[in-house]
Design brief:
Blueprint: H1 2-16, H2 22-37, H3 40-44, H4 48-52, H5 55-84, E1 92-93, E2 102-103, E3 105-106, E4 117-127, E5 132-142, H6 148-153, H7 156-163, H8 171-180, H9 184-194, E6 199-205, E7 209-210, H10 211-223, H11 232-245, E8 251-252, E9 257-262, E10 268-274, E11 279-286, H12 289-300, H13 308-319
Helix pairs in contact: 1-5, 2-5, 8-13, 9-12, 10-11
Length: 322
Amino acid sequence: MLSRLLNNNRNVLLKRTPVLTTKTLTRASMVRFASTTEPASSVKSKSNDESMNDRPSSMSGKKITLAVLSGAALAWGYIYYRDNYMQKAPQFISVTEELEPFLAQIGPSQYPLKTTYSLLGHGVRSVTFINFKAYGLAIYAADKDMKLIPKILNSNFLKKTFIDTDPEKSHSENVKLALEDPVKSVVLIRNLLDSGIRMCAKLTPIKSTNLTFVRESTIKTLWNHPDAEANKEVLSKGIDQLRKGYSKKGSFSPNDDLVMELNADGSLQFYYYNNKTKETFDLGLVTEPLVGRFLFSQYMSGPKPLSQETKDAVVEKISTMV
């Protein structure tokens, strides 16, 4: 598109601009040199024929001016394209070489999401003892809710009680340390999720699996939350909702996506995107807030996050926002 825009501008301008040849420029330069070295008396004594010889200099000057304007127009065309098209182009990030790059920003134009989300962090879920990469994971926060991150983590209560415990460090450094702590991080992320921040997670398998296996793995993740036992009854009802709604069966292939959208009320919407057919399927809505908040808490906090790499990236990003 850039080359087409520049060529169009160039073609229009070249139709209006005389071509500057080496001969023309050389002659113009010689005339200008002569005019600057002749004495004033010589200028006064010029004949009409000699005066006529000054015209090429004037014409060449016009040609040079037009050439400059032509170059300026081409430069302006590039700047216009850069500002209006290049900056709006999707930005991609590489999660792992086995997968297609992830979008740094996702929204209704890619999936049936309710708003636009920007990346907080990404990584890979690995089973270390067999050196097996399971899936790529990316965590996003709603653009309109980003302001909630500094608002919550800068609150006086959390700062005094959990965060600013080392007076030798800045608030940002203390936030990072607290989010790296297996106990404090659960408290801080819980407060953030309880604020109603909207978030989105994208899970993309590296090896072929199936949707049923992924659903059961998600349920296992919920039961592994540090607060699961204390909320067993409520969580059980939420998991029943998850099983009934998320009932689609079938293969889950590399570069397919499982997208989970956490709404402001804590409800969790599941979508499945088939990369081969380019179809998106609604896998159901879980209205019990504990399910969505526990799941995202497991992604971003606790002693055993699903992807340490993803959690570390999220922590790094959040610590720069406070």
